[in-house]
Amino acid sequence: MKTIYSTVRGASMKYVKIEWESELDTGIGVIDRQHREFIRLVNTLLDSSIKSEDNEIILDSFSFLRYYIVEHFSMEESAMRAYDYPQYGMHKNIHDSFRKEIEGMDMALKMNKSPHETAIKLNYVIVNWFVNHIKVEDHRLCKFLEARAAEKHEVLSDKLNTIVSSFFRSSPAFSTLQ
Ligand SMILES: [Fe+2]
């Protein structure tokens, strides 16, 4: 992770930019590709929040990110149900609390609050929440999925691709992620 400083209206603000690191790899291609895309979208939003005073531009990149998160979480939850993941409830609760954070940030942006404030909040959430979530809960889930698929003599990537194809339908921009 790289720390960057930006001067906004004379005040120096500190952001942490996420860069992909091998510790984030779960070993499951489709999930890793989606996590990488998520981080790319977060960094894009962070850049536009720093550079732009225009809430519309920020709102657009935020909407895209929000849609992406909702679809990605739903896809993971669908995979958990398909393989009877014993920690489904706990993992879903964690997703739900992140969904709420995102809804809160969406409201803050729509109420025309400072985009820089939202950028800082998002930065905090990502650094303190999402990266740890991938490293802990998603890694645990992915190990389970691999083991369960092997037990059932199923090809995990095929199964996940089938699940993914039922999500990310409404936007052609996501077709490359499956
Ligand atoms: Fe997750």
Q: Overview of this structure, please?
A:
By secondary structure, the protein is mostly helical. The protein contains five helices and two strands. It has helices at 29-51, 55-82, 88-110, 115-151, 156-165, and strands spanning 2-8, 11-17. A two-stranded antiparallel sheet has the order 1-2. It is elongated and about 55 Å long. It binds fe (ii) ion. The site of fe (ii) ion has 6 residues, from helix 3 and helix 4. Residues 76, 91, 95, 133, 137-138 line the site of fe (ii) ion.
Keywords:
elongated; 178 residues; Four Helix Bundle (Hemerythrin (Met), subunit A); two-stranded antiparallel ribbon; mainly alpha; binds fe (ii) ion; 2 strands
Short description:
The protein is mainly alpha-helical and 178 residues long. Helices cover 68% and strands 8% of the residues. Bound molecules: fe (ii) ion (FE2).
Amino-to-carboxy terminus distance: 27 Å
Name the CATH class: Mainly Alpha
- Helices, by number, come to 5
Bound ligands: fe (ii) ion
Q: How many separate domains make up the residues? A: 1
Second CATH tier, the architecture: Up-down Bundle
Which fold name fills CATH's third level, the topology? Four Helix Bundle (Hemerythrin (Met), subunit A)
Assign the structural class, choosing from mainly alpha, mainly beta, alpha/beta, alpha+beta, or little secondary structure: mainly alpha
Query: How are the strands ordered across the major sheet?
Result: 1-2
The share of residues in helices is 55-70%
- The H-level CATH homologous superfamily, spelled out, is Hemerythrin-like
Instruction: Kindly state the number of beta strands.
Output: 2
Radius of gyration: 17 Å
User: How large a portion of the residues is in β-strands, by DSSP E?
Assistant: 5-15%
> Assembly type of the shown chains?
single chain
The gross shape turns out to be: elongated
Question: How would you state the average pLDDT, rounded?
Answer: 81
Which stretches are poorly predicted, pLDDT < 50 over at least 5 residues?
Answer: none
Elements, N to C (H/E)? EEHHHHH
What is the makeup of the main sheet?
2 strands, antiparallel
